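User: tokens in, sequence out, please.
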């Protein structure tokens, strides 16, 4: 609806439709199927222009033609001009004397509505016609009347930051917390960053915690709009709720990349780890907001909290390819079993596999990615870090494949992670009891002595691995176990 707040809550740059009524009156189209004679059109123009003498003259002419003013007004309700009557036009144009004449002399109803339920008062508020608004309210206009979409004059004033209009409405008994599309006037003011309007509404005891759909509160809206003053107004004297189960103001400030908002909320006591299934830290990691990440970590944000898929912040940053964020988060993140090489490079490799498309992988017969085959290919290309990541990924779907542990042990030897090499070799031995105990004991001893090449030979001497390619650094051939 042109003359109500938009669904996004943002005020129009100028009152929408400001010129439309006049343009429509100048060009009444016969194609619109409107049965209005020239005198009726002239009557509306006179109201629009505030020409009381002309209006009186035309009204008398219509009376002589046998038409009452009531009949004329009914005939004006047509699609071309949206059913605006004389009082609507006079109100939106701010023609006080015309409004007085229509109300006092012709007894027009101050709450008359057009096709979409708009009253003259709503138009006066929207078009910032304070004198007309005062006149209408003084003659009993209802400040709480809603138009067809459920919005009230106060909603319009709040979204357009019309403080004078809001003061008028509140002084005449306007309810401060009406809901329109699950939004209160305070929420709209916060959403638009209208600080003066927020202050006015809070002074009239608007509810700072009136939650709308999905627990969006005025504080969340203010932080999203980068309105620090508004956030302070809501927090300090009004005890706005700082946390919610899912949609927290801190997350809103982070998402909006408002570092000052994040700092303000933390100082006020916001829980930095609230917001399941994703925390503010996860949002910052996803967006690459390093300043917010540092601020949140300094305030005690836990980098080890997983989302509903089990992913932690450093993985989120790595999947997004945000290396600087990975470097900040890695030192404060506990090692993840699913990441074969727990290092910055290792988690980067892990992320590449995670975000890759199925067509980037060799496929099994069932059409699913064959990560083991991919690992073999990477091993044959001496890309041991990638091979290790792929073998680890393969374990997620095939945890009983003992050969994967043997291959992972070999990769770890090549990448220099001797401890992991020994652990994986031990796991493999436990799953393969027929493996020569002497080979395992010899390999373990050689690892401790840092004789890694010989350890590799010893551990794998009884194992025949097929990497799907020509022999690599150490020749292995035979059947795939």
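Assistant: Sequence out:
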């Amino acid at each position: 609806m042109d003359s109500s707040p938009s669904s996004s809550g943002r005020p129009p740059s100028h009152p929408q439709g400001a010129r439309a009524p006049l343009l429509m009156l100048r060009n009444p189209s016969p194609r619109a199927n409107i049965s209005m004679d020239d005198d009726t059109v002239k009557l509306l123009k006179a109201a629009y222009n505030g020409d009381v003498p002309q209006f009186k003259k035309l009204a008398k002419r219509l009376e002589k033609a046998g038409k009452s003013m009531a009949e004329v007004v009914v005939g004006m309700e047509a699609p071309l001009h949206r059913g605006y009557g004389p009082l609507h036009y006079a109100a939106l144009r701010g023609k006080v004397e015309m409004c007085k004449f229509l109300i006092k002399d012709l007894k027009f109803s101050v709450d008359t509505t057009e096709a979409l339920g708009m009253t003259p008062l709503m138009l006066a508020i929207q078009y910032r016609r304070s004198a007309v608004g005062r006149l209408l309210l003084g003659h009993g206009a209802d400040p709480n009347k809603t138009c067809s979409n459920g919005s009230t004059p106060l909603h319009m004033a709040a979204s357009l930051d019309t403080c004078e209009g809001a003061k008028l409405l509140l002084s005449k008994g306007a309810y401060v917390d009406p809901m329109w599309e699950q939004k209160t006037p305070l929420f709209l003011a916060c959403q638009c960053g209208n600080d003066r309007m927020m202050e006015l509404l809070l002074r009239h005891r608007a509810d700072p915690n009136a939650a709308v759909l999905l627990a969006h509160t005025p504080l969340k809206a203010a932080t999203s709009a980068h309105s620090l003053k508004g956030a302070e107004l809501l927090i300090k004297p009004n005890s706005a709720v700082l946390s919610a189960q899912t949609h927290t103001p801190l997350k809103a400030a982070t998402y909006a990349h408002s570092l000052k908002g994040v700092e303000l909320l933390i100082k006020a006591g916001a829980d930095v780890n609230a917001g399941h299934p994703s925390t503010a830290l996860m949002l910052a990691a996803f967006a690459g907001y390093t300043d917010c990440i540092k601020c949140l970590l300094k305030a005690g944000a836990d980098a080890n909290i997983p989302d509903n898929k089990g992913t932690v912040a450093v993985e989120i940053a790595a999947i997004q390819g945000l290396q600087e964020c990975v470097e900040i988060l890695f030192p404060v993140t506990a090692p993840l079993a699913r990441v074969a090489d727990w290092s910055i490079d290792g988690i980067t490799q892990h992320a590449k596999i995670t975000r890759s498309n199925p067509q980037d992988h060799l496929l099994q017969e069932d059409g699913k990615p064959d990560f083991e085959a991919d690992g073999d290919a990477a091993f044959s290309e001496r890309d041991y870090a990638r091979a290790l990541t792929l073998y680890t990924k393969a374990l997620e779907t095939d945890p009983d494949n003992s050969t994967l542990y043997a291959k992972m042990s070999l990769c770890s030897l090549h990448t220099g992670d001797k401890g992991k090499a020994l652990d994986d070799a031990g796991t493999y031995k436990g799953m393969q009891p027929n493996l020569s105990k002497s080979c395992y004991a010899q390999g373990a001893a050689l690892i401790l002595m840092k004789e890694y090449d010989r350890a590799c030979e010893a551990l794998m001497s009884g194992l025949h691995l097929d990497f799907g390619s020509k022999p690599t650094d150490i020749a292995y051939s035979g059947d795939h176990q």
